[in-house]
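Module 6 notes. Inverse folding takes a fixed backbone as the condition and produces residue identities as the prediction. Think of it as a translation problem where the source language is geometry and the target language is the twenty amino acids. Below is one complete input and output pair. Work through it position by position during the lab.
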């Protein structure tokens, strides 16, 4: 009974963490460039059960027939699962839908690629291309982080520029004059190389080196989050049902333990 109690509780903890993951996806359905997370289950190693009362077997046992018997080992009953846990929070890197905004400083990435930005912790990467021109003329994110060029320096747009355009590979033009080149990169084994930091920022794993991106930049558009409200809500409801089943299992185990301590003890 104790084992069943802990197994059910482990399942409830797993579903609690999954709920947190789904809630974060729902909170970011309108965040440009956001990539949804998926909680991946793992299973504790199952336990092999044997009939421990049958460890001493002899030739006259009912399982013996014409010299054949099971031997000295107890008969196998089967395996018993010991519960689940969250093995990994995987990121769904699928392409989000593109939304036309008409803002010349809004940039969307199709295919593989990241924008580089300068943060207090160092260079970080994002697919959120909702940029604007700051008071100092630098291209910035909505958090006020400077967007970096291929030379590692912030992109600066001339104050008198009227028409600003971006090429498919990050060329920056002001009034048809090239004024910079965006740091538009990707990483080998892209889906495993990048880790989430928070605030829609990512950082590469140790040893991952940036290289030229194979994707394209679309001006006047934003990549929407790849989290779908309907799908996330269905997952949340299903998750609640599983959690509820685990809670009922814990209650049943607790009732059985109570009876064992109060009623069986009296006998």
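Target side of the pair, the amino acids:
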């Amino acid at each position: 009974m104790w084992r069943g109690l802990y197994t059910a509780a482990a399942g409830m903890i797993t579903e609690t963490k999954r709920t947190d993951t789904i809630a974060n996806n729902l909170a970011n359905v309108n965040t440009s460039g956001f990539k949804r997370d998926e909680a991946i289950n793992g299973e504790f190693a199952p336990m092999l059960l044997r009939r421990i009362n049958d460890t001493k077997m002899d030739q006259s046992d009912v399982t013996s027939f014409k010299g054949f018997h099971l031997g000295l080992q107890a008969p196998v009953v089967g395996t018993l699962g010991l519960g689940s846990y969250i093995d990994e929070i995987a990121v769904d890197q699928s392409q989000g839908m593109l939304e036309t905004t008409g803002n010349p400083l809004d940039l969307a990435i199709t295919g593989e690629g990241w924008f580089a930005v300068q943060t207090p912790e160092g260079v970080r990467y994002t697919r959120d291309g909702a940029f604007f021109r700051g008071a100092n003329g630098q291209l910035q994110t909505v958090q006020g982080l400077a967007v970096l060029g291929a030379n590692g320096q912030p992109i600066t747009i001339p104050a008198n520029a009227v028409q600003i355009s971006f090429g498919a590979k990050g060329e920056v033009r002001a009034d048809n004059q090239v004024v910079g080149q965006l740091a538009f990169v990707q990483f080998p084994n892209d889906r495993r190389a990048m880790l989430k930091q928070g605030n829609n920022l990512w950082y590469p794993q140790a040893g991952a080196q940036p290289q030229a991106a194979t994707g394209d930049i679309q001006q006047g558009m934003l990549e929407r989050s790849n989290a779908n409200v309907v799908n996330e809500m269905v997952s949340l409801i299903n998750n609640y049902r599983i959690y509820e089943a685990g809670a009922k299992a814990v209650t049943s185990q607790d009732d059985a333990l109570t009876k064992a301590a109060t009623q069986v003890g009296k006998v």
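Reference fact for the lab report: Residues 65-69 have pLDDT under 50 and may be disordered.
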